[in-house]
Design goal:
The protein contains 3 helices and 17 strands. The protein is mainly beta and about 325 residues long. The termini are far apart.
């Protein structure tokens, strides 16, 4: 398989016999049909699970009279293989992008970090029910969309910002249930660290943004970990994995105003609280940065009968 694209980004076209495709991720590959006429399997199988599940597809050449092999190839084993494959993915710095300039014209590695936020996932039983959390807070929804509450200026009556700090809570303290919303200053370049203390992998998606996964490693992240970052050609992505007992670091510019969801891609965990919202507000209230609330939008809950705020200008 010749890898040509990951999550909408052109990649260096390396060849692979097997690819790890984690939850929420997308790959495009080219397969060259240059073998003797016959039937050949494409195999998709689970990894890192107690029970292996397998699905197959068949590539059939014209004039094929040879059945596929009765023995399916085994998937690679071990986390080291996965780490090494992730490190082999590289942005194609000379390929064109959505902008007129090539992808490599965006030198993310030379931008100064203005803030570092570290998240650690956890699980607990609260009130006899399973919950999942980020930095000790398990998210619960309110009956009015968070962005509406913020836009109408009544957010403080329904939730508190920044219940989670920029560092995980020390130890295994209690998990609290609350709307989990943090603020990030508009147009700042932020480093986000995900730490996974559990025995299974984690997967995260961030709405509204692509980001650069610059580093992964076993154990806990420390400032020394930055020495191993890829600050040149990490592939811009929308979803990223965090291996067991390991960390993953991403970097991005929060230049898209709005209320954005950072969530686990494991739906049980998201539903039971392993998510939060990131509020990015432009202080200028300018149409350059964000559109006004559409006149036709449906309103509900606490803002249904409130007068609309002045539009952005």
């Amino acid at each position: 398989m010749e890898l040509v694209e990951i999550d909408g980004s052109h990649t260096m076209q390396n060849l692979y016999d097997s690819l790890d495709v984690h939850v929420g991720q997308c790959y495009s590959v080219l397969v060259t049909a240059n073998q003797a006429p016959g039937d050949y399997y494409l195999v998709a199988s689970t990894r890192f699970m107690k029970k292996e599940l397998t699905a197959t597809g068949i590539v059939r050449y014209a004039g094929s009279k040879v059945p596929p092999s009765a023995v399916l190839p085994k998937a690679p084993t071990g986390w080291a293989w996965s780490f090494n494959q992730w490190r082999s993915f590289r942005w194609n710095l000379t390929a064109s992008a959505a902008r007129p300039n090539p992808q490599g014209s965006y030198h993310y590695g030379s931008i100064n970090i203005t803030r570092t936020i570290k998240f650690a996932n956890s699980r607990a039983v609260v009130g006899g029910k399973s919950r999942f959390a980020l930095n000790g807070v398990s998210h619960v929804d309110v009956d009015t969309p968070l962005k509406h509450l913020e836009y109408f200026g009544v957010a403080d009556k329904f939730f508190k910002y920044n219940l989670t700090g920029d560092e995980p809570r020390a130890g295994s303290g209690p998990v609290s249930l609350a709307p989990n919303v943090i603020t990030v200053e508009f147009r700042t370049f932020v480093e986000v660290i995900f730490e996974n203390p559990e025995k299974g992998p984690q997967f995260y998606h961030l709405d509204g943004y692509s980001f650069f996964p610059v580093g992964m490693g076993p154990g806990k992240w420390t400032p020394e970990s930055r020495k191993r970052y890829n600050l040149l050609d990490a592939v811009s992505r929308h979803a990223i994995q965090v291996f067991p007992k390991s960390w993953t670091a991403i970097m991005l510019t929060f230049d898209n105003a709005g209320m954005w969801n950072l969530r686990s891609e494991m739906w049980e965990r998201r539903y039971l609280g392993q998510q939060l919202y990131i509020s990015v507000q432009s202080p200028a209230r300018s149409l350059r940065d964000e559109y006004s609330l559409p006149e036709t939008v449906l309103l509900c809950g606490a803002v249904a009968s409130l007068p609309k705020p002045p539009p952005y200008t």
